[in-house]
What does this fold into?
Amino acid sequence: MKREAISSLLARRRFLRKLGRAATCAGAIVAAGTLGGTPKVAAKNESSPGSFPTKDYDWTRHSWAFGVDATKCIGCLRCVEACKRENDVPGDAHHFRTWVERYVYLEGDKRARVDSHHDPVNIKASGSEREYRFSNRYQDAKVEKAFFVPKLCNQCTHPACVQVCPTGATYRTRDGVVLIDHKYCIGCQYCVQACPYGARFYRTKEGVTDKCTWCYHRITKGLQPACVEVCPVGARIFGDRNDAQSPISLFIRNNRVQVLRPETGNAPNVFYVGIDKEVN
Amino acid sequence: MEPGGLLEHLVDIAPYTGYVYPNETVIPWTVLIVVYPYLTGLVAGAFTVSSLYHVFGMEQFKPVGRFALLTALAFMIFVPMPLLLHLGNPQRAFNTMLTPHWTSAMAIFGLFASFYVILLMLEIWFIFRPYFVRQAQQTSGLSGRLWHVAGLGSDDLSPQAMRYDEKWIFALAIIGIPAAHGLHGYVGFLFGSLKSREWWSSDLMPVVFLFSAVISGVALLIVLYVLSCRLRKVAVDLQCLKGLAYVLWGFAMFTLALEGLEFANVVYKGREGIEMIVEYVTGPLLVPFFVLQFSIGAVIPIAVLSYMIWRGTTGKALIVGVTVSALLVLFQVWMMRWNVVIGGQEIAKTGKGLLSYQLVLFHREGLLTAVAVAVAPLPLLWAMVRVLPPFTKPVSP
It folds into this structure.
């Protein structure tokens, strides 16, 4: 059942064209007006180069992927801040396109203690929901093992969120990014439920869902995603898998990489190095 | 903070324990999404009773046969209401029908529900056509013309025409069975097909939803029928009530077994995250799940019904016993919907934490709205019963 999202978009357009024709034949002026308007919405997502917002960009020539080297992450959270600013993400502790988790094993612990910057203790340490920081809560404890794990949308090859969207407002692009058409989303939040990674959130003000796009507006102009750009240690790697020498191709080739929750069948496209068994 | 303001913020944010994904602290589906499967369930259950009479020819259900159809329609009309109130952009809701995304379980709902509403209206029209014709003949002036319009100008009441009508009613009632039950089974699929939540992700979910739907609809009819008899000051048809009690009793036992099996499956398989589920059901869910849903809502009515059937209780005691059991079953199914919809979201996707849904009274998606939507079909049903009298006239002694 995991069909390419694009084929359903084309089907949608064909369906609309048929509807439009039927309406015209019937001579229903009002209906024709309404239906005549809808194909324009669908056309925005079409693959014809002319309609693409960025000129000289051909989405059939790229296959974007993301890498996370958890052994490098220092939990400075500049990525979170950059993302919030770049993408106009609500500035509170409940809406994130990307976030960082901290896993700590104290001496004798069998299971990790996990927290993230949205945790009240960490917010208290930073003093504001808009300031992102990990509190030094384990300074007096004997830490056996600890590491940070940056999280973001996995832009899955078989995205559960796209499968369940009732209108097709969320779709997978040819270059491998899952996007949301905010002018078409009805705000049912079925996609929020379906994502096993908690990557999606709801924008109350606009009544639509939102999530990481790997900064699609940047990468289609040849730029890096904001979080990759600001990472001071190179824990985030981004690139084109069609280019064998791109950072991501090298990262995947030179490391034993893994993905989160492979059992879901979602086939994620964020590849991790240096994470532990409890990370999911 | 979001421009929604402080209140919006407090309403939206769920307190939690353990580790939950940051975005999970806003619970996506509220009490309105509890009301939605509750209403569709009542529709499917009420329709079941009408088909017991119209398709399976069980004569004891004659007193409620037509009333069951009107009940199904009154509730069905309000089914989209909780969804529209929940949507962020309800003005785009029609997109799901204009440009449905076929891989989505939600997409075909509008089409399927519309089909079912049309089917229901057709069946009701055929059943009440003789009434329209007689009214048109007996009344004059504007109301007479309106009755004529309601009959769509078809005023042939010859035996041949009536036989033709009966064929249609029979066919529509037969198609209605898979339609009504498919509609509700699909609601179960909507939850059961999601792999992101262990509490929902079950193959049994559509079946559990379906059977709980049947018992809730039968229970609703029992309560409404007894109530209507009191309002009309006529005696309750004990044969009919006993028949309904049998249906409720049988299906209630089956539902309980199914729900028990489903829960046993989740616990026994013990997949990843089971520790959190066990912590949840033995903690925050202990009262809503084991006490309210299983004990008070399921075991007590089954015990009461079993006792009455065993002792051959009749008369007023039967009416009281069956009505109380029906009310408890209505409560059980409400708790079941709550425990599935809200319960599933209170168990974090991380498998490492629990959230706590905040139910508020005054809010677009608050308790008051939910209650208003849930009882809204009743005034509509009252009005429908005034226009289309569904109860066959009691035989004078």
The first strand of chain A starts at residue 64 and ends at 69. The mean pLDDT of chain A is 87. The CA atoms of residues 117 and 132 of chain A lie 6 Å apart. Chain A touches chain B through 64 residues (CB under 8 Å).
